[in-house]
Amino acid sequence: PSALLVLGIETSCDETAAAVVARNAEGAGRILSNVVLSQFDSHAIYGGVVPEIAARAHTECLDLLVQKALDEAGVSLTDLSAVAASAGPGLIGGLIVGATSGKALALATGIPFLAINHLEAHALTAGLTDAIRPPYLMLLVSGGHTQILWVEGVGRYRRLATTIDDALGEAFDKTAKLLGLPMPGGPSVEKAALNGNPRRFNLPRPMIGREDPHFSFAGLKTAVRHAAAKISPLSEQDIADLCASFQAAVCDSVADRVRLAIRSVLPLLPEGTPRNFVAAGGVAANKALRSTLVGISDEFGFAFRAPPLELCTDNGAMIAWAGAERLALGLVDGLDSPVKPRWPL
Ligand code: KG4
Ligand code: ZN
């Protein structure tokens, strides 16, 4: 395959993003531009993402962001090999805005369109940032996703685990909210936990020792609520101890799940295959969780890799890169391809 230049559009949640990524004939990627506009402020007063507001905000700024991405990359529409847009899973209004814009650009320019699975884009990002090739194990932990994936190749994913209730980022956000800490909750909980005693509260370690591979965090969040309700008023130290105890329980639970997943893929790895473990998603920024994951990777002889944070969280470069990888395999999508609010990998 020859060198490719792909525009990527991401509008599945509350980030409007566009990027231009190049893929050379050897399969190496390079980000030429990557612009992200967070709608955080538009949703803050509601305490969560409002789908209708998100869709309108995408409509308002996507054209400008695409132009900015092209300008920063120093390319014009006619230089592109293809346009890729996230087509699911996500909020349907936003997906329609992004995919329709992508299709219109592809139609006007006469180049292929690619309807990208947002989870696939997260899963393939390590190929762009760390130049690693499948197979690898991947933990995706964000506000909307909590999954362990075995990435066998482009288009070949085995979902080893998912959450049976809350996503991990959601659990951090809900815990922050019930303790009166500011949003986004993950960084607030992490900061408070720095001064806390992780052993003061004996919180449950969800799913530990279970043979099914999944995650669960709703019960843990409820346990924090009950522990907090017993103390009135909550001092700053109480909050710090609750956050530290919550984070310790999260790390233990995730560690147990990741070990189980690693054990299940070890037999699939031929002798001599590089062992790579990739973490991505906003929660992968958590230092306590990262050091837990580094420890487990060491235990099993895996190299731990986490793409830079701005490429772990939602962005256009990952969509463009997934598009380039698919295009290199000759895969393209029709202009009649639908968006899919639910689209498991
Ligand atoms: O990947 P992301 O930016 O967006 C999506 O959910 O798509 O992830 C955001 C989530 C939020 O729930 C946020 O609270 C959490 O990641 N998060 C963290 C940290 N930074 C962000 N959770 C724990 N510790 C952090 N340092
Ligand atoms: Zn995402």
Provide the fold topology.
Blueprint: E1 4-10, E2 15-23, E3 29-38, H1 40-44, H2 51-73, E4 82-88, H3 92-109, E5 113-117, H4 118-129, E6 136-141, E7 146-153, E8 156-161, H5 168-178, H6 185-193, H7 218-229, H8 236-265, E9 276-280, H9 287-299, E10 303-305, H10 309-312, H11 316-328
Parallel strand pairs: 1-4, 4-5, 6-9, 9-10
Antiparallel strand pairs: 1-2, 2-3, 6-7, 7-8
Bound molecules: 5'-O-[(R)-(carboxyoxy)(hydroxy)phosphoryl]adenosine and zinc ion (ZN).
Residues 13, 142-144, 169, 172-173, 184-187, 190, 281-283, 285-286, 313-314 line the site of 5'-O-[(R)-(carboxyoxy)(hydroxy)phosphoryl]adenosine.
InterPro entries: ATPase_NBD (IPR043129), Gcp-like_dom (IPR000905), KAE1/TsaD (IPR017861), TsaD (IPR022450)
Subcellular location: Cytoplasm
Catalytic activity: L-threonylcarbamoyladenylate + adenosine(37) in tRNA = N(6)-L-threonylcarbamoyladenosine(37) in tRNA + AMP + H(+)
